[in-house]
Amino acid sequence: MIAIGLTLLGVALIWYTRYRPKQQSDEQNGLDEEELKAIYNKTIELIEAEQYFLNKSLKISDLAKELSCNERYVSRAINKFSSGNFNKFINSFRIEHSKELLTGGKFDHYTIEAIADESGFSNKVSFYNAFKGDTGMSPTQYRALKQAK
Predict the structure, then answer these.
(1) Rounded distance between C-alpha atoms, residue 120 and residue 92, angstroms
(2) What are the start-end ranges of the H helices in 68-123?
(3) pTM of the entire structure?
(4) What whole-number distance in Å separates Cα of residue 119 and Cα of residue 98?
(5) Domain limits at 77?
(6) In this structure, are 36 and 78 located in the same domain?
(7) Which of 6, 71, 86, 147 is an S-S bond match for 64, by CB 3.0 to 4.6 Å?
(8) Cα torsion at 29, 33, 37, 40 (round to 10°)?
(9) Domain HTH araC/xylS-type spans what residues (predicted)?
(10) Are residues 100 and 141 in the same domain?
């Protein structure tokens, strides 16, 4: 009896994977490139104006709610017009902010952990990895290079 059930389940799974509906394009979902670009631009404006990137627990659903927009549309806009997914997109704002803190003079006495915290990163490791991936150097190296100039 169990074997028959498993066989039927397997057949159903094979049928579903073969005949399931295909993913629709943005245009088929009612969005054209211009509308996605508008969502992307509004997202950037909101993030910069309100400094949402400083929120360590920021989620795409938070931005979508603030924009009164569908979360999937915000995600598509970010994926289409930025250099990566939501996390990479938000981290790019955090990294730019951290660069200002690292070279601003006013924050020279801050530790790297404090700069990471002030920039919206939840820990030093994620800050270090994102910073190095973006700039090719560690935050400490970046600070030393900028202070030497």
Answers:
(1) 11
(2) 71-81, 86-103, 112-118
(3) 0.78
(4) 6
(5) 31-82
(6) yes
(7) 71
(8) 40
(9) 41-145
(10) yes
